[in-house]
Design a protein that fits this description.
The chain is mostly helical. It has helices spanning 2-13, 23-37, 41-58, 63-87, 97-118, 127-135, 150-153, 158-167, 172-187, 193-212, 225-254, 259-270, 278-302, 305-324, 332-351, 359-378, 386-401. The relative contact order is 0.08.
């Protein structure tokens, strides 16, 4: 949360800034708005794409661009306006000030453009005025593939979420490629033919760049046999990954391709896609989250600081997986509770060793537990194996201590 508010302060301090430094804030605003309004991430992706095309149209004053806007973009705007007016109208002003301001700007552009187009005066569209309005946006400023967090877009797809998490330990470049595939898949239905060709070109370039990178070897003076064995294993794994990516690249170059098939091909490098038991793992993660929150409440009431240290250490070990995989396998409301739990655990860790506790911490954790247990009931947890949760926690600690 500290980073979230630091980014909010950045917005207030500057009139012009690089939006990419505010991605956590922008993504969280869209995620929380979706939870409140019952929207999915694709809505924000498509809205961003429309704004991106609008920015292109308004960046020049040519009649051809104005015709393109009136004929192609305006109907897409109209579809989004109906959703904005019905679903986002009741967003709390205090929590979503900048997002609501940007949505109002979008509505105003549509209203002015509608008035001009309906009078058959599209050549008098105030392009510069509209462009300035888009450039003043904060949360809805067009960011294309960065418009939403990729995990939010792929909510419920355990194979892809797990692949992103595992691939991060091998190559950030590969995770960026996966995220680009995810964004292209989300925007593909409303993308124009020329942009679809551009997406294809970008995908080929990204995959080619990835396969062209050379393996790096250690050159330390105390290089040992152990270093050699570990490094050889890493290099062989890297070669195997690149070999599979080369096969995918050749397939894309030689024929038409499906984004979902490409994502499945990448996922199959790391996991057995057909044997993934996503609901079993969801139940396991809900049990772990509920158990962690219950443990913290018990130790706060007992004043057992030593055990709170252990709870905090476990939370730090679990957090990467829960924030990159588990939360996205749940509905948006339960997702928020997962985020709240780990924010509370971060607060507890930062207040150590005194462990300054406020009264509402226990109440918040109790609320989260109720949500987790309700979600477990809805998912039919009767056949859940609690030993798998303990094994997972032990493995998470082992991985965390090895880093």
């Amino acid at each position: 949360m500290r980073k979230f508010y630091e980014e909010l302060k950045t917005i207030e301090d500057f009139s012009t800034f690089d939006r990419t430094v505010l991605l956590d804030y922008i993504h969280r605003q869209k995620f929380e708005a979706s939870a409140v309004c019952g929207l999915d991430a694709v809505f924000w992706v498509e809205l961003d794409y429309i704004l991106h095309l609008m920015e292109f149209c308004f960046s020049g004053n040519s009649d051809e661009k104005k015709e393109f806007f009136a004929t192609n973009l305006f109907p897409l705007m109209k579809e989004k306006i109906s959703v904005i007016k019905t679903k986002t109208a009741h967003l709390p002003e205090k929590e979503f000030f900048y997002l609501k301001k940007d949505l109002k700007t979008f509505e105003h552009i549509f209203a002015h453009a509608s008035n001009i187009i309906n009078k058959n005066l599209k050549y008098f569209l105030p392009s510069q005025l509209f462009l300035t309005a888009i450039e003043s946006m904060t949360v809805l400023y067009p960011l294309c593939e960065n418009t939403c967090d990729a995990g939010t877009i792929k909510r419920g797809d355990y194979a892809i979420l797990l692949t992103r998490y595992v691939a991060a330990d091998f190559s950030k470049q590969l995770v960026d490629i996966i995220d680009y595939f995810i964004w292209v898949q989300a925007v593909f239905d409303i993308a124009y033919k020329s942009d679809r060709q551009y997406f294809r070109t970008q995908i080929i370039k990204k995959l080619s760049d990835f396969t062209a990178t050379d393996s790096k070897f250690e050159t330390t003076t105390d290089y040992s046999a152990k270093n050699f064995v570990l490094e050889l294993h890493e290099v062989l794994t890297e070669i195997n990954i690149k070999s599979n990516i080369v096969k995918l690249l050749n397939k894309i170059i030689s024929s038409e391709f499906s984004i979902s098939e490409c994502l499945k091909s990448i996922a199959s490098i790391f996991i057995d896609v057909d044997k993934i038991q996503d609901q079993t793992n969801v139940l396991r993660d809900l049990h772990i989250a509920s158990d962690l929150a219950s443990s913290v409440i018990r130790h706060i009431k007992e004043g057992n600081n030593r055990s709170l240290y252990e709870d905090s250490a476990l939370a730090k070990a679990l957090k990467p997986y829960f924030m990159q995989v588990s939360r996205y396998m749940l509905d948006a409301e339960t997702d928020i509770e997962i985020c709240r739990l780990f924010e509370i655990m971060s607060y507890i860790d930062e207040t150590a060793p005194s462990f300054i506790m406020h009264n509402d911490i226990v109440a918040s954790l109790e609320k989260s537990i109720a949500k987790f247990e309700m979600r477990k009931t809805l998912a039919n947890a009767s056949g859940f194996d609690k030993e798998s949760a303990e094994l997972f926690k032990a493995k998470a600690r082992q991985i965390y201590s090895g880093k």
